[in-house]
Amino acid sequence: MSLSSETTTLDIEGMTYASRASFVQKSLARTPGVQSAVVNYATEKATIEYLPDLATPAALKEAVVQAGYGVVEQAPDTSTTERSEEIDRQKALA
Fold first, then answer.
1. How far apart are CA 3 and CA 12, in angstroms?
2. Are 11 and 24 in contact (CB under 8 A)?
3. Fewest Cβ atoms closer than 10 Å to its Cβ: which of 18, 38, 78, 94?
């Protein structure tokens, strides 16, 4: 069992009041394996530090849903190299 933590960011949808961020934050903090959770109403993002052996991304998303909000699914992340290559291609076309 590894005790090294990971950090992830979730895009939250549906927060209509700043005070609602605390509901999401508390729900995440109660999730087993979560070491810290910070929810920013203005950016609609939650940054979570968690132990992957104890908490899964699905459990984090479920905590947001249990608080009454949704999680925006993000497209698969591309590598830094792929991004750099795409930027170079776009510059060459300009």
1. 27
2. no
3. 94
Over range 22-42, report the average pLDDT. 95
Other beta carbons less than 10 A from residue 41's beta carbon = 16
Crossing angle between the packed helical segments 20-29 and 57-66, to the nearest 10 degrees: 140
Looking at this protein, which amino acid is placed at residue 71? V
Q: Which residue has the tokens 């992957």?
A: 52
Name the pTM for this structure: 0.74
**Separation of alpha carbons 69 and 26, rounded Å:** 13
Instruction: Report pLDDT digits (tens) over 53-81.
Output: 999 999 999 999 999 999 998 765 555 66
Q: Give the CA-trace dihedral at 68, 13, 16, 35, to 10 degrees.
A: 70
Determine the Cα–Cα distance for residues 42 and 15; give it in Å rounded to an integer. 9
